[in-house]
Q: What sequence folds into this?
């Protein structure tokens, strides 16, 4: 009798455990809310305004659900958001992280990035960008004739030659740059207006805090110094004075085919010298001016003007970076290679800020486009 009673109790317990297992089993894919974009806006030193975008599959047209909450970290935000959504929130499909300029300047983005980087659910190929205004406004914005915001931002921030003036950094890339002892990070800087989002500049960071920006033109030179072979085309304008005293404008559009940079340091630690040799090959895809480029002397004069202009712009940019105490071009690495003893970022910045920089530019034109 006792044996029969124990058998009945065992069966009841097994049935109850099975029912609990069904209740706690993982939700099906259609019951998941896959977060594609996360935005972080400044509230105060402790709280963050966090906004997420979740794509909603549809037969007719893709749509997006947007949720917001205030929290001190992403894990707390996920708990808050879970009570607002009718589906289970997940970061497994996170593709884009946006920070407002205010948050990036006042707080720094390192804490948030490391929190997400250490989360095993979040993939490494998550792109990061800084936005003018609020990240929430970008996520909630209406963009005519564009795909839903998750797809739109993910495609926009993928590296392309045309927008290679900024390091299109993934979460893995940013952690590498942030923890580097020889360089500072940079990220795409976005604006949104009239139903469009545009990458206009690069946001410049000291470790994890934004301290300024540099232009697309300067960004192309930075990427060249970093060793990027394929650069976006650049236009140049020269003012010449004719024999009669009139000013004449000459315009050149140069399409980079290949760039090669060598950075070497020499001299003592008291007076370090950084020598940069930038060699570029490319196509002259557009020209308007008075020169007859079929004549060797005039063609050579134009090439020399290009070399002087690139050198001048490079020097002005690098001197400004030295004054700001930032090194997005990773020039400190050349000093570190010749340094004996323990190397720290403070050591590198001190030597970099007092180093003399020399830039040598060589331009090789291998083809022609439209010439006027």
A:
């Amino acid at each position: 009798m006792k044996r029969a009673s124990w058998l009945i109790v065992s069966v009841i317990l097994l049935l109850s455990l099975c029912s609990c297992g069904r209740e706690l089993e993982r939700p099906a894919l259609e019951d998941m809310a896959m977060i594609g974009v996360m935005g972080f806006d400044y509230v105060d030193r402790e709280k963050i305004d966090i906004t997420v975008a979740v794509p909603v599959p549809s037969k007719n047209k893709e749509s997006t659900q947007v949720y917001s909450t205030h929290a001190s970290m992403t894990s707390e935000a996920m708990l808050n958001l879970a009570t607002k959504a009718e589906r289970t929130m997940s970061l497994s499909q996170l593709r884009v992280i946006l920070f407002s300029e205010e948050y990036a300047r006042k707080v720094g983005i390192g804490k948030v990035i490391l929190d997400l980087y250490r989360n095993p659910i979040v993939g490494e190929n998550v792109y990061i960008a800084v936005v003018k205004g609020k990240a929430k406004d970008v996520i909630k914005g209406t963009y005519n004739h564009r795909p839903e915001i998750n797809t739109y931002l993910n495609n926009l921030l993928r590296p392309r030659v045309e927008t290679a003036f900024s390091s299109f950094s993934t979460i893995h890339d940013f952690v590498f740059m942030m923890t580097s002892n020889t360089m500072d990070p940079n990220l795409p800087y976005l604006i949104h207006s009239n139903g469009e989002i545009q990458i206009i500049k690069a946001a410049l960071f000291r470790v994890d805090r934004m301290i300024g920006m540099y232009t697309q033109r300067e960004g192309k030179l930075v990427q060249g110094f970093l060793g990027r072979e394929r650069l976006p085309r650049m236009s140049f304008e020269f003012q010449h004075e004719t024999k009669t005293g009139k000013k004449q404008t000459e315009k050149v559009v140069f399409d980079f085919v290949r760039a090669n940079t060598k950075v070497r340091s020499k001299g003592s630690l008291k007076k370090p010298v950084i020598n940069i040799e930038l060699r570029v090959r490319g196509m002259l895809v557009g020209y308007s001016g008075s020169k007859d480029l079929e004549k060797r002397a005039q063609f050579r004069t134009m090439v020399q003007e290009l070399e002087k202009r690139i050198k001048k712009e490079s020097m002005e940019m690098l001197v400004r970076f030295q004054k700001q105490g930032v090194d997005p071009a990773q020039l400190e690495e050349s000093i570190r290679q010749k340094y004996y003893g323990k190397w720290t970022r403070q050591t590198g910045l001190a030597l970099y800020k007092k180093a003399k920089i020399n830039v040598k530019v060589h331009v090789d034109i291998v083809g022609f486009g439209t010439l006027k």
About this structure: Residues 19-25 have pLDDT under 50 and may be disordered. Residues 74 and 217 are 35 Å apart (CA to CA). The two ends are 107 Å apart (CA to CA). The first helix runs from residue 2 to 24.
